[in-house]
Amino acid sequence: MSEKNKKQQSLVSGEEPAEEAQETQDAAQAQQEQVQILNMGSVTVQKGSYTIHCLTIIGQIEGHFILPPQNKTTKYEHVIPQLVAIEERDDIDGLIVILNTVGGDVEAGLAIAELIAGMEKPTASLVLGGGHSIGVPLAVAAGRSFIAPSATMTIHPVRMNGLVLGVPQTFSYFEQMQDRILNFVAGNSRIGKERFKELMMTTGELVMDVGTVLDGERATQEGLIDELGGLKEAMNYLYREIESRRKDAPEGGEERKKESATRKKGKKEESAPAKTGKKANK
Questions:
Q1: What angle do CA 122, 253, 245 make, to 5 degrees?
Q2: Fewest CB within 10 angstroms: 35, 100, 111, 224, which?
Q3: Tell me, what DSSP letter sits at residue 57?
Q4: What pLDDT is stored for residue 172 in this prediction?
């Protein structure tokens, strides 16, 4: 039977040819990826047997207060669910976080950074343009951090806009907040806490503030960032890390799937008696 007759027969029977079905599926997937990029600034890409999720943190990190519409922002209520989904999905092998941020809400930034640092899957961060203020903890939160040679990172003390009461409790709050950042950065990078604090309190470098601006090379020399490099280096690290973990635990993925199936089965068994009880009560 010719290809033309096969197509005609498929149309008559209501069946779509396999090739056309695959094309339709690919087009739908591409459209979904475009929507994901536009709405969330993230995309999942596949190369061979590796599936990597790319998450971008750009502009200003928006926390509990909505910023003006003209500001380019990353909303933490969008990022947090994505990180949870990436960690729990068996079809995603690793995460790359691309940063170009001026900073923003301290608590929102720390919340995102803590989630990234607590992930079991391989993670890498790449600073492009700038990773300033609370962007520093976000950069060091990944398993390995990279920075482009032209990128910069600004380190400065915690600041607050709006009404500030000049009482001892306010200064104590600032000090506690600053200690949280110091401890997190020192615990997730090679820079010491005292050295990071010294860079934070440097005078004479910033015109209207205290602090330090580090370019890519100096950030790696200080031990703040692990490696000087770009997208290629960050992706290659993820591929190596994924492959290494697969060799160490070749059946890890299968065990996780079995655990998931067991949990689902347990939920069904738990819900069954409840339905029986309702019928008995009636």
A1: 40
A2: 35
A3: E
A4: 82
Q: What angle do CA 40, 42, 47 make, to 5 degrees?
A: 160
Take residue 58 and report the two structure tokens written for it.
Answer: 């750009």
Q: Mean pLDDT in each 10-residue stretch from start to end of the chain (282 residues)?
A: 54 59 62 54 90 96 90 93 95 97 94 97 97 96 98 90 72 87 97 96 87 97 97 97 88 51 49 43 40
Given the residues 156, 172, 244, 260, select the one marked as catalytic: 156
Q: What angle do CA 161, 197, 154 make, to 5 degrees?
A: 55
Short-list 179, 173, 174, 208, CA closest to 196: 179
Reported as half-sphere exposure (CB side, CA atoms, 13 A), residue 241 has a value of 20
Helix (H, G, I), strand (E, B) or coil at 200: helix
156 is known as an active-site residue: yes
What tokens does 130 get? 């700038």
Q: pTM above 0.90?
A: no
Residue type, 193: K
Encoded tokens for 39: 């709405």
Alpha-carbon distance 16 to 192, whole Å? 62
Query: DSSP readout, 153-209?
Result: EEE------S----SHHHHHHHHHHHHHHHHHHHHSSSS-HHHHHHHHT--SSSSSS
Three-class secondary structure of residue 249 per DSSP: coil
Residue 66, SS3? coil
Rounded distance between C-alpha atoms, residue 93 and residue 251, angstroms: 14
Catalytic residue from among 42, 125, 132, 133: 133
